Amino acid sequence: MKTGDHDIRDLVKASAAGDANSYKKLYEYLVNKVYVYVQFRTNSRDAATDITQEVFIDLFSALPNFTYQSTGQFYSYLFTITKRKLARHYVDQKLRKSEEVEFDENSPTASVCISTNTEVDHDVATALDELENTAREIVVLHHWSRYTFGEIALLLNMKESAVRVRHHRALKLLATNLDV
Amino acid sequence: MQDDKHIKKILDTSSPVLSEEAQNQLWNKIEAGLPAAAPIPSPYLMNVIFRKTMTPIAILLALILGGGATAYASDAAKPGDLLFPLDRTIEDLRLDLTFSDAARADLVNKFTEERLSELREIIDEEVSISPDNASDSNVVNASTTIDQLEIDAEVFVDTTVIKLKLADQEFYFETTATTREDILAEVMVKFPVLRYEQIDQTLEFMIKDRASREKDRGVISLSDSGRVRIDKAVESLISFLDKTTPSDDTSRDNVLAALTREVAGVTEPAEVTRKNDQVRIGDDTSRVDIRIDDDGGSQIEIREGDKHMKIEEKNGEIKVEADDTSVKATKEDPENNEIALPDGFDINATVFNDITVVTIKLDNDEFYFETSATDRNGIIDAALEQFPALTVEQIEAKLSITIKYRDSRFEDSNLPSEVITSLATTSPDVLTNTPVYSYEESNYSEYKKEDNNNGYKTDYNTEADEVKNKESEDTQIEKQEKKYAEKYRQEDHNKKEDKHESDDYENYGEEDD
User: Do B23 and A28 touch (CB under 8 A)?
Assistant: First the structure.
């Protein structure tokens, strides 16, 4: 069942009022949007699960102070919470692995880590590594988190036409790298 | 196209989604970590016991249920009065002890109206002006007094404003009177030194079929203590509303609107004067002048020392002009160097919601660029970056800014497929008026050629092409953005098939949405 904007709005409002049942429905709709992106950024199922858990706990606490205006705006809000959790994760990683190579989320090294992730097809992961950061994010957000181009434009603070252009060029490059 | 579908399918199927079982396990962890829901208000009195400011329940119940002179006296107390805190405590207790929703709503309405009424009384006490200086000596000669006396009464939908001018002094007050006779009586009460005949001969009575505005009122003066009383009453009302009504309750909005009308222009000690159709706040050196024109446009002029800003609004468009008169004085000083402006130099910036388009004219040439800057200084910086040969003074002398409250359209920028790059070598030599690069001179036909790859030109044979060679990838993407943004708009409007390679983009990804 496709959840429309009206349903999302109602679920957000009910969740903000403390309705746990509504929040579970909202969670069921959003969990994979958040999880796949976090998993892509952390290269660890356990870390992705933990961070996703924290995101949804924080979201529930923050909803009473959130004023719903549109689904895109809500997604942007959720995305902000997710990125903050990821930033905190990276800092923790750096503190724990101070003697190892520093984990830079935007470095090619980080993207190489994805290649060893058994959750993602190796060839696809390697092909994604070849993309520049923004293009890779757009591909993941569109094909894995299932955001529309308009929503991705809001999340990444870009114009929708720019998102489409970068996505198209990214697919061209992926097709070349995957020999499709 | 086929390749795209195949690659999309590969990507879609490689998504590392959580299984249903994993989702449920994760939810259990999340549910365990969710903050506890707010406690349901107890139907008993226990919640009252834990309020920090509570006196023993027995005494309070006696006050509320048993009446008593103190309780009745406190009900008439206004903010600042001695019994006011007790009045509020009793109100709060009555609300706490009211369990029925309907009864509670009635009590909330009652207390809200009481607070509004208290506020009105305070404003009436503190703001109405008695002409203490209108002594008998001023009215010894009746004819002289009538010549110096002017009384205007304007009856609005919500109030009646009476302005009285006696010699060089202006007074005003508001009243609920709506007829000439009642207004005459009110003026006599406020100004006992004046006689009925004097008031009757002088009074100009007008009925205005609208609600009063701030500019309808003349001189407002308010003592510091009066302002404090009004502030406390306003604060009390707003706190009460916050405590007792949901944030989206329309009755709360109505009360706040009524509150706004009561205190509009009253709680600030600003000097507000009205002259013709203009309202002035402040004095000659630091002031804001507001004027509403007959054609619906408005103008706000702000003067702060040497700085001056004018904001004009007409037909939804806003024009802002700002200048620093201290700088102007320097420019006009013959002892200082005058600013040399290039022939035909002009610079205009149009600020849209998403971008700012800047047009620079030099003699017969026009140059355009876009910037994210939305304020005057940012636009000047952007112009200097594009044209480092210009000076701040030159730009300041000519820059005009227009604000448009909408997203930019393709035609707003008038940009061809290229954007000026911020290269010093391509900036025109403005002082000698020989631009190095001009769109008018370039061969546009080359840019209109469609490319089967990504729409990028690969053969360059003009001076402009050399510039294009140096453009960054991001600039190329910006070109694509404009091209496809316009295409999407055309497709939506005309519903025509586009044979261009970017047909791929029409439905691109939409089947996934």
Answer: yes
